[in-house]
Specification:
alpha/beta, Aspartate Aminotransferase, domain 1, Aspartate Aminotransferase, domain 2, 2 domains, seven-stranded mixed sheet, three-stranded antiparallel sheet, 11 helices, 16 strands
């Protein structure tokens, strides 16, 4: 019997919001400082705290993850063509397009759902200047193989790590791979500052360059050295980020328990594929994607409609592919026959709710609905 819990709208992700009483001292300090933006004390503290927490050398805070990627491409002076994945949030390709760069889509790996290194090399042309892979769902790319390809062809690598906050590979931060990594601190992310983002570097001079670019290219009071933009994070966001870091261990533990319950209940259901766990990578439990294959009794969209009808706001994340949107579908690399795996995955994937405040009885109701659609009796 399906777990009888009062139906409320259950989103895929939901921001963790610490009690307001914990945030008030930060707001009072901002008021006392009379410094609300332009690299204030909390901004500097959060950059330092993130370097320590994430295990990276340099962080530049920005207003959001899209601006982070736009600035990263500009700072590295990327032109021509960039190879990227069609299986991501559209901002990944939008940032490339905004910089006047031509995106070239390559297919994805059927297991990891990340950019397939074996398809990258075939997409390289004399105009290729960089690769922008995405750590989809916080699951690390094959960074070693991607770097080999980049080194062989003299290409830059910028990782879209919007989902990969805190993830480690071989016990080092996934953010240390490539030339740069960019993060999103949007309200739906496991670590957030309401809105916000960051760029991670190993090079101090590159951080200085980005810090100028995100502040209109201003060098000093009378000197502008580059055509920058306004991409700064304000003090309220930075202060909230400092508070959020204090709650990260507890939030991660809660997400890990939710992930485990899903795996125990759904891991052996015919027609459902769960994202495989790789022992060399840590996990941040950012998302819980399942793939609804043809062996499942109903289609992905039928399961989606049933869950939505029961107030479970699941997402077909990512569907449609970026390559199918109006601005990109005319690109030669966007043709369906060039992206068979990405198209198949996009038509099967469904993200179930996972966030630290998801109650066990609500999760049980979600599981019961999926099992009922699978034809599995529940108690």
């Amino acid at each position: 019997m399906m777990n009888d819990v009062k139906a409320t709208v259950v989103p895929v992700t939901q921001p963790y919001l610490p009690p307001l009483v914990e945030f008030m001292p930060y707001l009072e300090q901002i008021w006392a400082n009379r410094w609300v933006t332009n690299g204030g004390p909390f901004h500097s503290q959060l950059e330092a705290a993130l370097c320590e927490y994430l295990g990276v050398r340099h962080v530049s805070l920005v207003s959001n993850g899209t601006i982070a990627l736009i600035l990263a491409l500009e700072a590295l002076e990327i032109t021509g063509e960039v190879i990227t994945t069609p299986f991501s949030f559209v901002a990944t390709t939008h940032a490339i397009h905004w910089n006047g760069i031509k995106p070239v889509f390559a297919d994805i790996d059927p297991v990891s759902m990340n950019l397939d290194p074996s398809r990258i090399e075939a997409a390289i042309t004399p105009e290729t200047r960089a690769i922008v892979p995405v750590h989809v769902y916080g699951n690390p790319c094959d960074v070693e193989q991607i770097q080999k390809i980049a080194d062989k062809h003299g290409l830059r690598v910028i990782y879209d790590a919007a989902h990969a906050f805190g993830v480690r590979r071989h016990n080092q931060s996934i953010l240390n791979f490539g030339d740069m990594s960019v993060l999103s601190f949007h309200g739906t992310k496991i670590f957030h500052t309401f809105e916000g983002g960051a760029i991670v570097f190993s090079d101090a001079e590159m951080k200085r360059r980005v810090d100028r670019l995100k502040n209109f290219g201003i060098e000093d009071e009378v000197t502008v050295t580059a055509c920058g933009l306004n991409g700064k994070m304000n003090e309220v966001q930075a202060a909230f980020g400092l508070l959020q870091l204090q709650h990260m261990p507890r939030a991660q533990e809660a997400r890990a328990r939710i992930d485990q319950r899903y795996r125990e209940a759904l891991g052996n259901i015919r027609g459902l594929q769960l994202l495989e766990v790789d022992a060399i990578n840590s996990r941040n439990y950012a998302y819980f994607p399942i793939r609804v294959t043809p062996e499942f009794p109903v289609s992905r969209d039928t399961l989606y409609d049933e869950l939505r009808a029961r107030q479970i706001a699941v997402r077909r994340y990512f569907y449609p592919l970026i390559s199918q949107f109006a601005d990109y579908r005319a690109l030669p690399s966007a043709k369906r026959e060039n992206l068979p795996v990405a198209n198949a995955v996009a038509e099967q994937v469904l993200c179930l709710p996972i966030f630290s405040m998801l109650e066990e009885q609500v999760q049980a109701r979600i599981i019961d609905i999926v099992l009922a659609m699978a034809g599995v009796a529940t108690v």
